[in-house]
Design a protein that fits this description.
Blueprint lengths: L1 H10 L12 H14 L9 E2 L3 H12 L7 H9 L2 H4 L5 H10 L16 E5 L2 E16 L6 E14 L3 E12 L3 H10 L9 E5 L4 E17 L4 E8 L2 E2 L15 E10 L2 E10 L15 E13 L2 E11 L16 H7 L5 E12 L3 E11 L2 H6 L7 E10 L8 E10 L14 E2 L2 E2 L8 E13 L2 E14 L29 E17 L2 E14 L2 E14 L9
Antiparallel strand pairs: 1-9, 2-3, 3-4, 3-24, 4-5, 5-7, 6-7, 7-8, 8-10, 10-11, 11-12, 12-13, 13-14, 14-15, 15-16, 16-17, 17-20, 18-19, 20-21, 21-22, 22-23, 23-24
Helix pairs in contact: 3-4
Length: about 550
């Protein structure tokens, strides 16, 4: 028995689901519950990160086992979020928490059966969990081994059920596939990472790796039952798809101030972020210049199965700091930007989601950076018609097979979208796109299958195929969003994927076995082939390892 407890202490570190950013499996579970139930939860799941307490309360109220046939998904989701349920003021939910709690494993550790160390008092809750991902593998291209070593700590603090603090801190050493190295060489940045330094190991025979610290966290204050204010350092995502043309979690974490107002069928988010227009890479320490974004997103559940969202964002730089006029929480940014003399970069967008027949979800996005209706109607390839389109569909419990889900998605973005006349107002952070990883001047198709043949076994296959136009020498064809759009090649006859055509075909196979809750054994296979000017290059990668309380580190582009 002592040996069992020792193994449990080392490996069992259950996820604190009120984390800074939800894992992909969290999001998929919520999507499936909504589709199978045939109606949208009032949590507006296209806006990430979700409010964890609001999410579990909504699942409990509307989808708990006594109400319908969603016993498996809803019950498992609630039982895996018992520490969040404990924060609720609802006495019936508190009872569910008590019933769902696991027996204490040790006297001082795992006393709730869910967290390595936790304290629960009437007006105070605290949880502490270690974070870990250790993987190793092999790549066909070159002799460099693949290594992922992420380790850190996660804490959660809740006071008076009004103020909460979340924090993830990890120390990381990684090696990356050759195509990601190409991204690093082009942009002097690693996707999802800010500052980094080189890493070598004679013992592991690593000649070119990367070492970095990553910290994400937030302080949240519930101003009322419907309004929450957050100040933190982290990532956001707006959309129902695998990609987002509005705002995604691809770039490095950002410093932000966020207001979320959720009332009736509406969710209104105000998001203000401080960004960096450039990056140091591994060149050392110095203060980087700043730029800023201000964004509004209004999400409305027009019917029980139809959601529509409106998005607007402005990117700007001021030598004196933030432009105070953009703090206005309601007025259109385009009007303010025009009144200031049009010095900034404004984006507008609309998205929608429709649930059909308790099996299918159809979704899409359109983002406009700039356009003229006359030029758009003429279809003459005017460079200023800068927009992107996303279309996608999800099929849950496909062909009547429980746990089998399909998803297909198409994204296309015209040349010069997200760009500006200087680096201070393009849509990037640390030289990384804030929206789609490919930037602009591309068309992409994604097909994903995920299947859970057993409760603890999750299988996923993903195929990504895209065409992207690359730049040649000093010619700007509109695919690199960091470049000044005044260096464009021509004003008219611009088409998607113009320039040097790159064709990429990739297949990713993932398998995870949950040997204890939220602790996984992973086996991954990845193949990627690219074709540029008839020059073909391909790679094959295999990795295996363990992962606890962390989502996979992915480079899917």
């Amino acid at each position: 028995m002592k040996k069992y407890f020792l193994v449990w202490m080392i490996f069992q570190n259950l996820v604190m689901h009120a984390q800074v950013f939800p894992t992909r499996s969290d999001r998929q579970e919520i999507d499936q519950m909504e589709v199978i139930n045939g109606r949208l939860l009032n949590i507006h799941s296209a806006i990430l990160p979700l409010n964890p307490l609001q999410t579990v309360e909504e699942v409990y109220t509307n989808l708990k086992p006594d109400h319908n046939a969603l016993t498996g998904l809803a019950k498992n989701y609630l039982l895996s979020h018992v520490d969040v349920l404990n924060e609720s003021k609802d006495s019936s939910i508190q009872t569910y928490f008590q019933q769902g709690s696991f027996k204490p494993r040790l006297k001082y550790f795992f006393i709730d059966g869910r967290n390595f160390f936790s304290i629960y008092r009437k007006n105070f809750q605290f949880s502490l969990n270690p974070l870990l991902e250790i993987k190793s593998g092999w790549q066909k291209e070159g002799s460099e081994v693949l290594l992922t070593n992420r380790h850190g700590i996660r804490l959660k603090l809740n006071i008076d059920k009004k103020v909460s603090v979340y924090s993830d801190i990890t120390d990381n050493q990684i090696t990356i596939p050759f195509y990601v190295d190409s991204f690093v060489n082009l942009y002097n940045a690693i996707p999802g990472i800010g500052l980094y330094k080189s890493y070598q190991s004679k013992i592991l025979k690593i000649k070119q790796g990367y070492d970095y610290l990553l910290a994400e966290g937030a302080v949240n204050f519930n101003l009322s039952n419907h309004i929450q204010i957050s100040l933190g350092h982290g990532r956001h995502f707006i959309g129902n798809g695998l990609r987002s043309l509005f705002l995604s979690d691809f770039a490095a974490p950002q410093f932000y101030l966020r207001f979320n107002t959720n009332i009736w069928r509406l969710h209104y988010q105000n998001l203000f972020m401080e960004l960096s227009p450039e990056t140091l890479g591994d060149r050392g320490n110095q203060l980087l210049p700043k730029k800023y974004t201000a964004s509004h997103y209004l999400s409305a559940n027009l019917t029980k199965n139809w959601n529509v969202g409106l998005f607007e964002s402005v990117v700007f730089e001021r030598s004196r700091g933030f432009e105070l006029q953009y703090l206005n929480p309601v007025i259109l940014y385009r009007y303010i930007e025009h009144s200031l003399g049009s010095p900034d970069n404004v984006f507008l967008g609309i998205q929608t989601q429709l649930l059909l027949r308790k099996a299918i979800s159809v979704y899409g996005q359109i983002v406009f950076d700039e356009f003229l209706l006359k030029e758009l109607i003429d279809q003459n390839g005017w460079w200023g018609n800068k927009y992107g389109i996303q279309m996608g569909v999800k099929y849950v419990n496909a062909f009547g097979i429980k746990g089998l889900n399909f998803q297909s998605e198409c994204n296309l973005v015209r040349p010069y979208t997200y760009t500006f006349r200087d680096s201070f107002a393009n849509y990037s952070h640390f030289n990384q796109p804030l929206a789609h990883p490919l930037g602009a001047n591309f068309k992409e198709f994604i097909f994903r299958i995920d299947y859970k043949p057993l409760q603890k076994l999750h299988l996923e296959a993903k195929w990504i195929y895209f065409h992207k136009g690359l730049d040649e020498a000093n010619l700007n064809y509109g695919g690199n969003i960091l470049k000044n759009y005044n260096t464009r090649l021509q004003d008219y006859n611009n088409e998607i994927a113009q320039g040097i055509l790159e064709k990429v075909n990739s297949i990713n196979l993932e398998s995870s076995y949950e040997f204890i809750p939220e602790s996984y054994i992973d086996l991954d296979l990845f193949y990627r082939a690219s074709n540029i000017k008839l020059e073909k290059k391909s790679g094959f990668w295999f990795t295996a390892g363990i992962r606890m309380n962390l989502d996979r580190l992915r480079f899917e582009f």
